[in-house]
């Protein structure tokens, strides 16, 4: 995984609540066996009409947001299916920061495995950021979001921060605890399946 | 201070922990399917890693398998490739696979318990959010993303922040348990606590309303924990649990000694503390029907489609969401639920496609025909369920009523195979999600119990199934 880089871009305001991962990537695109190229399927059914032409009233089809790297979403973002394809699509499309008042647990966890920074903030601040028309900076090291008029501090646990900043491979980290895993297995009373 | 069941399972699976960091948790059972695993196996190959414990890993194909004639080749090439990819991955990495021809094939959350792979007190993961189903056996069962699938394949562990224990007490006794089902209980819970109500928690369902339920009904409850946003849902095992798993194909040889220890250990202490609590009284609850585009948008069958104002309780974003849902569902505020006409009926999914579900639905249908304006299908949750149902003659009841009787799979719960709604079609579905486009682009889903789905098929619209003679 590539280390997370600080971003500065305009935000894409996306005020829908309870956006489920079926909307982020509809099921017809889950049949692919690779991780790349999912950006074109992002919000597919909201973004395109039945002839696959862009719907003019959908926010991502407004060229103003073409270079936005920050999605400011409504409450309970990423609920429903565990499909990591949702995160692959957001990342491939160009988002590296997602801000909301709350995230669904599995989606939240999937973000960190793919170098996306999900930031949870108070709903009032989220709504204020959705109104922000000038570029916003996100600094993970300092844990700040800076707009023209203010600096907002966000929380992130130190372990997750380290993973993003260093682009760590989870599995390689875990393998350093190989002894402990073997020790656990020796004492386990749960029989194997077969 | 005492501990909750969840905390006990958690603590007995910690491989490594540090303060204020996620813990490394050992995984006893890993279930794998075709849709969320290919990229995980690719990751292993790229890094020259192997599967640490193939003996704790079981695979099947369920999400995109066709449910019609299995002797024919799979026409959808991308589905065929995904299925072949799983076959190759299981062969290369030495994983036991129940493929499309296996008598054990079926929805992963149906076959796990049926085969005795799911066990109390264990940790179970699968790259599917409805893994919470297995919590019905007192297991800590978590849905995970593909990166975690890879991590578990490689290390048999995963990093997890400890969720908070959430007690949901279901009190009382249903007056008509054939008409007011486990599905109605869990939809009532989600309606009350909302689709984010369980975020960051593991729910333990307790109380007489839960212990009264059969194992299959308990699975329906735990299955939909994720629809309330919970990391998992579980129910303390009791004699019903132990009886269900006894003598199944993969039940461990030392099962009885395991049961002896589970009887002692797998319960929440009287003085344990939950971080959150919700109580549902079920004496008078009605059959439920969802009207919107998430499972929290649900009401009694005797009610009318609510207005966005009523639903949102003053939250402007929720109000907008409800309005959008009504537009998508093409429903008018104030329409009685019983007057909503349906085009399709789907009895299936990891929520409601077990033998009891089919038995209950068949009682409604027996000797009748479905409405001429409705197309209806039954998709048993596994080949084993299908076989058992056929031995009881249930398939005849369904096909005589003009239901389609299908092969096992996820089918129209998520429409990854050819079983989909056409745009604008309205479906009474026993599945778990009524999200926009879930069952087919432009399709409209109403979540209901198998009994309600069956009654809707006969009548062409929803009915108060409490008025039917179901005994």
Which tags fit this structure?
heterodimer; A: 194 residues; alpha/beta; four-stranded antiparallel β-sheet; four-stranded parallel β-sheet; 8 helices; 15% strand; globular; B: 471 residues; five-stranded parallel β-sheet; 32% helix
End-to-end distance of chain B: 46 Å
For the sheet with most strands of chain A, the description reads: 4 strands, antiparallel
How many distinct beta strands of chain B? 19
Q: Helix fraction of chain A?
A: 25-40%
Report the β-strand fraction of chain B as a percent range. 15-25%
Number of strands of chain A: 8
Helix count of chain B?
Answer: 16
- Mean pLDDT level of chain A: 96
Description:
The longest helix of chain A has 10 residues, at 178-187. In chain A, the strands form 2 sheets. In chain A, strands 1-6-7-8 form a 4-stranded antiparallel β-sheet, with no helix packed on it. Chain A contains 8 helices and 8 strands. Chain A is of the alpha/beta class and 194 residues long. Chain B is α/β, with parallel strands linked by helices and 471 residues long. Chain B is built from 16 helices and 19 strands. Chain B has helices spanning 5-11, 38-46, 77-93, 108-114, 146-155, 182-193, 208-211, 215-223, 239-245, 255-265, 308-312, 316-329, 355-365, 383-391, 394-400, 450-459, and strands at 14-16, 23-26, 29-32, 57-60, 96-98, 123-126, 140-143, 157-160, 164-171, 201-206, 232-234, 276-281, 288-290, 298-300, 344-347, 375-378, 404-405, 426-429, 444-447. In chain B, α2 links the parallel β3 and β4. The model of chain B has no long low-confidence stretch (mean pLDDT 97). At the A-B interface, α4, α7 and α8 of A face α2, α3, α5 and α12 of B.
Write the layout of secondary structure elements.
The complex is a heterodimer of chains A (194) and B (471).
Chain A: E1 7-9, E2 11-14, H1 21-24, H2 44-47, E3 70-73, H3 85-93, E4 97-100, H4 105-112, E5 117-120, H5 123-130, E6 136-139, E7 144-146, E8 151-153, H6 158-166, H7 170-175, H8 178-187
Chain B: H1 5-11, E1 14-16, E2 23-26, E3 29-32, H2 38-46, E4 57-60, H3 77-93, E5 96-98, H4 108-114, E6 123-126, E7 140-143, H5 146-155, E8 157-160, E9 164-171, H6 182-193, E10 201-206, H7 208-211, H8 215-223, E11 232-234, H9 239-245, H10 255-265, E12 276-281, E13 288-290, E14 298-300, H11 308-312, H12 316-329, E15 344-347, H13 355-365, E16 375-378, H14 383-391, H15 394-400, E17 404-405, E18 426-429, E19 444-447, H16 450-459
Parallel strand pairs in B: 3-4, 3-6, 4-5, 6-7, 9-10, 9-12, 10-11, 15-16, 15-18, 16-17, 18-19
Antiparallel strand pairs in B: 1-2, 2-8, 13-14
């Amino acid at each position: 995984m590539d280390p997370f880089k600080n971003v500065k871009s305009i935000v894409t305001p996306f005020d829908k609540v309870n956006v489920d991962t079926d909307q982020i990537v509809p099921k017809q695109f889950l049949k692919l066996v690779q991780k790349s190229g999912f950006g074109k399927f992002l919000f597919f059914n909201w973004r395109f009409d039945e002839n696959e032409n862009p719907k003019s009233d959908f926010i991502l089809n407004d060229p103003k947001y073409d270079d936005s790297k920050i999605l400011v979403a409504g409450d309970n973002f990423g609920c429903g299916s565990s499909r990591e394809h949702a995160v692959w699509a957001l990342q491939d499309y160009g988002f590296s920061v997602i801000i909301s008042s709350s995230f669904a647990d599995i989606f939240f966890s999937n973000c960190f495995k793919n170098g996306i920074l999900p930031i949870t903030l108070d709903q009032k601040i989220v709504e204020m950021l959705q109104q922000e028309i000038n570029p916003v900076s996100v600094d993970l090291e300092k844990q700040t979001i800076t707009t023209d008029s203010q600096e907002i501090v966000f929380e992130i646990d130190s372990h997750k921060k380290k993973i993003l900043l260093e682009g760590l491979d989870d599995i390689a980290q875990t393998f350093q605890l190989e002894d402990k895993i073997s020790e656990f297995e020796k004492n386990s009373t749960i029989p194997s399946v077969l | 201070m005492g501990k909750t069941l969840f905390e006990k399972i958690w603590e007995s699976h910690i491989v490594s922990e540090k303060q204020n960091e996620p813990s490394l948790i050992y995984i006893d059972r890993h279930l794998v399917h075709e849709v969320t695993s290919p990229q995980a196996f690719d990751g292993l190959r790229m890094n020259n890693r192997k599967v640490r414990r193939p003996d704790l890993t079981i695979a099947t194909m369920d999400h995109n398998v066709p449910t019609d004639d299995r002797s024919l080749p799979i026409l959808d090439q991308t589905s065929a490739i995904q299925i072949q990819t799983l076959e190759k991955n299981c062969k290369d990495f030495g994983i036991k696979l129940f493929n499309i021809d296996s008598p054990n094939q079926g929805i992963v959350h149906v076959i796990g318990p049926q085969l005795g792979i799911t066990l109390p007190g264990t940790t179970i993961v699968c790259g599917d959010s409805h893994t919470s189903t297995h919590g019905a056996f007192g297991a800590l069962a978590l849905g995970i993303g593909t990166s975690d699938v890879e991590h578990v394949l490689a290390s048999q562990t995963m990093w997890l922040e400890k969720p908070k224990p959430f007690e949901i007490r279901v009190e009382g006794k249903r007056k008509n348990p054939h008409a007011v089902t486990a599905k109605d209980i869990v939809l009532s819970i989600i309606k009350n606590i909302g689709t984010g109500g369980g975020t960051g928690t593991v729910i333990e369902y307790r109380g007489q309303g839960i212990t009264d339920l059969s194992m299959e009904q308990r699975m329906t409850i735990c299955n939909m924990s994720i629809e309330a946003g919970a990391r998992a849902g579980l129910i303390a095992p009791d004699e019903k649990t132990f009886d269900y798993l006894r003598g199944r194909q993969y039940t461990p040889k030392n099962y009885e000694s395991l049961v002896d220890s589970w009887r002692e250990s797998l319960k929440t202490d009287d003085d344990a503390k939950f971080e959150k609590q919700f109580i549902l009284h079920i004496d008078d609850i009605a059959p439920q029907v969802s009207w919107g585009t998430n499972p929290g948008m649900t009401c009694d069958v005797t009610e009318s489609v609510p207005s966005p104002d009523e639903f949102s309780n003053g939250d402007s974003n929720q109000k907008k969401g409800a309005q959008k849902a009504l537009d998508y569902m093409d429903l008018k505020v104030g329409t009685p639920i019983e007057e909503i006409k349906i085009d399709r009926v789907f009895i299936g999914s990891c929520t409601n496609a077990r033998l009891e579900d089919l038995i209950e639905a068949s009682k409604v249908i027996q000797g009748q025909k479905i409405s001429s304006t409705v197309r209806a299908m039954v998709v048993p949750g596994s080949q084993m369920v299908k076989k058992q149902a056929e031995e009881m003659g249930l398939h005849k009841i369904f096909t005589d009523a003009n239901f389609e009787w299908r092969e096992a799979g996820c089918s129209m719960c998520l429409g990854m195979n050819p079983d989909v709604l056409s745009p604008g079609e309205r479906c009474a579905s026993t599945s778990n999600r009524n999200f926009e486009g879930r069952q087919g682009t432009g399709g409209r889903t109403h979540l209901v119990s198998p009994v309600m789905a069956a009654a809707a098929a006969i009548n062409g619209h929803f009915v108060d199934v409490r008025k039917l003679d179901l005994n």
